[in-house]
Design goal:
Helix 7 crosses helix 9. By secondary structure, the protein is of the alpha/beta class. It is built from 9 helices and 14 strands. Strand 12 and strand 13 form a beta hairpin. The protein is globular and about 45 Å long. The strands form 3 sheets. Strands 1, 2, 3, 4, 5, 6, 7, 10, 11 and 14 form a 10-stranded mixed sheet that branches. It starts with a strand and ends with a strand. It folds into 2 domains: 194 residues, Alpha-Beta Complex (Spore Coat Polysaccharide Biosynthesis Protein SpsA, Chain A); 78 residues.
């Protein structure tokens, strides 16, 4: 799969899991680049070993969030003439059969901007997207970035991933922008990825499977703020999806305040997210970073 480049953003990576993921990708012929978001120097050895094994590594000197790392991968794909960008979190386990199905989907349907997997498997649950049929395609409004295959030319058209969002809802914003440009967000049937979603656990509320994410108060603040920033644009495009998303984020906030650890701090994080929306405006990233920009050092 020489037409696929996988970008793996890292922060404090687990050496064993990272090497397993990279080994799987390399064995399939997928090109890989690792982009580290300013991990402490204690992780330099792990990243150096990755680089010595033949995988390019770009290291940031300060933490700016996953969107910047994904744009490094996008820029690398553009520079090397690669058609498809596979975005994979460091703690995910990919299926090469799934990637092959995603490639076939994108090759056969030029109107598809990104192909996600059908099932995201966590440690105790299987998460599925709400879908609809579009001809012979299975489509949805947004996909989680880990395990998704993006059309590089489509990402160029939307100017990459929005770095102002830093980490949360970066994938949602990219899907929103792709849909606004007329692209479809599709799901490759019978595909899956194993992913660790925070430190969460699943539970049933009123008969519906719900994920208590276990995210920190700071992450909750970011999640609420970014989702509310996107809400007006999402509502204009798909009121049902926008309201469904806000409901999910609201349930997550309630669970954090009622049943998870650090309940008071979680509630305070959620409230800060609500308050920060009024003074926050998203700013699109308008350039791609070079792998050798001044803020990075190749390991």
């Amino acid at each position: 799969m020489k037409s696929v480049l996988a970008v793996v953003p890292t922060y404090r990576p687990n050496a064993v899991k990272l090497n397993e993921l990279l080994g799987t990708l390399r064995a399939s012929g997928v090109q890989v680049i690792v982009v580290d978001d300013a991990s402490p120097c204690t992780f330099d050895r792990t990243l150096r070993q990755v680089n010595d094994a033949g995988t390019p590594v770009a290291q940031h000197t300060w933490n700016q969030g996953i969107a910047r790392s994904l744009n490094i991968g996008l820029n690398y794909a553009v520079q090397h003439g690669v058609k498809w960008l596979l975005t994979v979190d460091q703690d995910s386990a990919v299926s090469l059969q799934a990637v092959a199905e995603q490639v076939r989907l994108l090759e056969c349907h030029p109107q598809v901007g990104v192909a996600g997997v059908e099932i995201v498997k966590t440690k105790d649950a299987e998460l599925r997207y709400p879908t609809r049929k579009h001809g012979n395609l299975v489509c949805t409004e947004e996909v989680f970035q880990s395990g998704s295959l993006w059309r590089v030319s489509a990402l160029q058209k939307i100017r990459g991933f929005d770095e102002s969002l830093r980490i949360d809802a970066v994938d949602a914003a990219a899907c929103l922008n792709l849909r606004q440009e007329g692209f479809l967000v599709a799901v490759a049937p019978a595909t899956s990825i194993q992913h660790q979603y925070g430190s969460g656990r699943s539970m049933r509320i009123l008969g519906k499977l719900t994920l208590a994410t276990g995210h920190s108060p700071k992450r909750r603040e970011s999640m609420i703020r970014n989702r509310l920033i996107l809400f007006p644009s999402e509502f204009r495009q798909s009121p049902r999806h926008a309201l469904r998303t806000i409901r999910r984020v609201g349930v997550n906030g309630v669970l954090g305040a009622l049943v998870e650890e650090n309940r008071l701090a979680n509630l305070q994080g959620t409230l800060r997210g609500l308050a920060s929306v009024r003074r926050t405006r998203p700013a699109r990233a308008v350039t791609y970073h070079s792998v050798l920009d001044n803020d990075e050092n190749g390991s």
